[in-house]
Amino acid sequence: MDLSYGHATWKVRFSPNIVGTWQYRLVATDASGTTRSDLRSFTVVDSNEKGFIRVSPTDPRYFEFDNRELFNPYGTHFG
Fold first, then answer.
1. 48 CB contacts (<8 Å, ≥6 apart)?
2. How far apart, in Å, are the Cα atoms of 56 and each of 63, 68, 73?
3. Using CA atoms, how far apart are residues 15 and 18, in angstroms rounded to an integer?
4. How many domains does the chain have?
5. Same domain, 16 and 34
6. Per-residue pLDDT tens for 1-44?
7. Of the candidates 6, 47, 2, 64, which has an alpha carbon nearest to the alpha carbon of residue 28?
8. Is residue 59 domain-shared with residue 24, that is, in the same domain?
9. Which structural domain range is residue 39 located in?
Protein backbone atom coordinates (compact mmCIF):
# COMPACT_ATOMS: atom_id res chain seq x y z
CA MET A 1 0.00 0.00 0.00
CA ASP A 2 1.28 3.46 -0.87
CA LEU A 3 0.36 6.52 1.17
CA SER A 4 1.36 9.61 -0.80
CA TYR A 5 1.46 13.07 0.80
CA GLY A 6 2.76 15.79 -1.50
CA HIS A 7 6.27 14.74 -2.53
CA ALA A 8 6.75 12.05 0.12
CA THR A 9 5.64 8.46 -0.40
CA TRP A 10 5.47 5.79 2.26
CA LYS A 11 5.56 2.12 1.28
CA VAL A 12 4.92 -0.87 3.50
CA ARG A 13 5.87 -4.46 2.75
CA PHE A 14 4.57 -7.36 4.81
CA SER A 15 5.25 -10.88 3.51
CA PRO A 16 3.70 -13.53 5.74
CA ASN A 17 4.77 -17.12 5.12
CA ILE A 18 1.73 -18.70 6.77
CA VAL A 19 -1.26 -19.62 4.60
CA GLY A 20 -4.55 -17.95 5.53
CA THR A 21 -6.42 -14.66 5.57
CA TRP A 22 -4.59 -11.69 7.06
CA GLN A 23 -5.99 -8.31 8.10
CA TYR A 24 -4.17 -5.02 8.52
CA ARG A 25 -4.69 -1.36 9.26
CA LEU A 26 -2.05 1.33 8.82
CA VAL A 27 -1.68 4.15 11.34
CA ALA A 28 0.64 7.07 10.55
CA THR A 29 1.37 10.01 12.85
CA ASP A 30 3.30 13.17 12.02
CA ALA A 31 3.25 16.83 13.02
CA SER A 32 -0.12 17.35 11.33
CA GLY A 33 -1.87 14.52 13.16
CA THR A 34 -2.75 10.85 12.81
CA THR A 35 -4.20 9.04 9.79
CA ARG A 36 -5.73 5.54 9.93
CA SER A 37 -6.51 3.37 6.93
CA ASP A 38 -9.60 1.21 6.65
CA LEU A 39 -9.26 -2.38 7.83
CA ARG A 40 -8.20 -4.44 4.82
CA SER A 41 -7.43 -8.09 4.24
CA PHE A 42 -5.64 -10.41 1.83
CA THR A 43 -5.28 -14.16 1.48
CA VAL A 44 -1.96 -16.01 1.43
CA VAL A 45 -2.01 -19.21 -0.62
CA ASP A 46 0.40 -22.14 -0.72
CA SER A 47 3.30 -21.77 -3.17
CA ASN A 48 5.96 -23.87 -4.85
CA GLU A 49 8.45 -20.98 -4.69
CA LYS A 50 11.62 -21.43 -2.62
CA GLY A 51 10.90 -18.55 -0.27
CA PHE A 52 13.20 -16.05 1.40
CA ILE A 53 16.91 -16.59 1.98
CA ARG A 54 17.98 -16.98 5.62
CA VAL A 55 20.96 -18.12 7.63
CA SER A 56 20.71 -21.90 7.97
CA PRO A 57 19.46 -22.85 11.44
CA THR A 58 21.48 -26.10 11.26
CA ASP A 59 24.76 -24.55 10.10
CA PRO A 60 25.15 -20.75 10.34
CA ARG A 61 28.03 -20.82 7.86
CA TYR A 62 25.47 -21.28 5.08
CA PHE A 63 22.34 -19.66 3.72
CA GLU A 64 19.22 -21.53 2.71
CA PHE A 65 15.77 -20.82 1.34
CA ASP A 66 12.63 -21.15 3.46
CA ASN A 67 12.08 -24.55 1.83
CA ARG A 68 15.47 -25.66 3.29
CA GLU A 69 17.18 -25.79 -0.12
CA LEU A 70 20.79 -24.61 0.09
CA PHE A 71 21.37 -21.14 -1.36
CA ASN A 72 24.39 -21.06 -3.66
CA PRO A 73 25.21 -17.45 -4.58
CA TYR A 74 27.23 -18.75 -7.54
CA GLY A 75 24.43 -20.99 -8.85
CA THR A 76 21.29 -20.32 -10.84
CA HIS A 77 18.57 -20.13 -8.19
CA PHE A 78 16.76 -17.19 -9.74
CA GLY A 79 15.68 -18.57 -13.10
1. none
2. 5, 8, 14
3. 9
4. 2
5. yes
6. 555 556 677 788 888 889 999 999 999 898 999 999 999 999 99
7. 2
8. no
9. 1-46
